[in-house]
């Protein structure tokens, strides 16, 4: 295994993807429709990251009240709707998750 | 409201703090896993320093343990990080005022977390002249934290071998929930989230996280369709204000 090539290669593709649009930003103007579509990127991508973590914590579908990820997520969603407070959402969601995982289930 | 540069920088750090907390266990687990592969210690650290992309670093370590060749890992990294192209496209209107010397480090530091914090801030504040100070406050905090956690994992990882099974990924889940839920205030945004979520479960087995990209793109199309049906209503007045030139 060539470690230098591995890390250099990973750097090039990762930085390349992140930078290519920024680099040419002066010469591109997205159509209005595309700009509006891009407004949905945070919701779409972050939700697509969250769902598998919650419903498939071990790689298999696990939709059960015994699944602490689902309980923690429900509490976090409720708190976030109620208060829109990031820190409170994180603390409450993690507390519910931990309580369910260690106190209730096991 | 007008902020000084330093205040913006500190505000960025502050807003990023919950995500920093969520990222700490990931950095430590990465360092610990890296240490257990054939990678040398400097390579484990160098990957955090130069690549700075959590999920692809995990996948790289996993593939290494399975004996994969480096070109395979680089190609996988390309696909796994392709979602960052969507992030940079979203931020594009906000980086146009800056020189390449500022854009390049902004791009280098672009992760799920820094994007989530930045888009949250832009939703609330619209287009900002000194946006980069806020961004660098959040993103540099994230970067330094990632390096420290990698080192901690490298050195103490072996003494807490079961850490990967504690369910610490829940911290990232609730942090992202805290960012997304306030954005869901009409049918289009709600449908966007539900479509992305359900499709990401169905396409979970697709290689190189291509299912994640597919789900996100379809969800965006569904949202656009509903937005048009609602009579061109904007997904979010603030975001739109920030994104339009």
UniProtKB/TrEMBL annotation, chain A:
Coiled-coil stretches: none
Keywords: Membrane, Transmembrane, Transmembrane helix
Highest taxon in the source lineage: Bacteria
Annotated InterPro entries: Brnchd-chn_aa_trnsp_AzlD
Record-annotated membrane-spanning stretches: 6-25, 37-55, 61-79, 86-105
Any single Pfam family the record assigns to this protein: AzlD
Protein name: AzlD domain-containing protein
Organism: Thalassotalea euphylliae
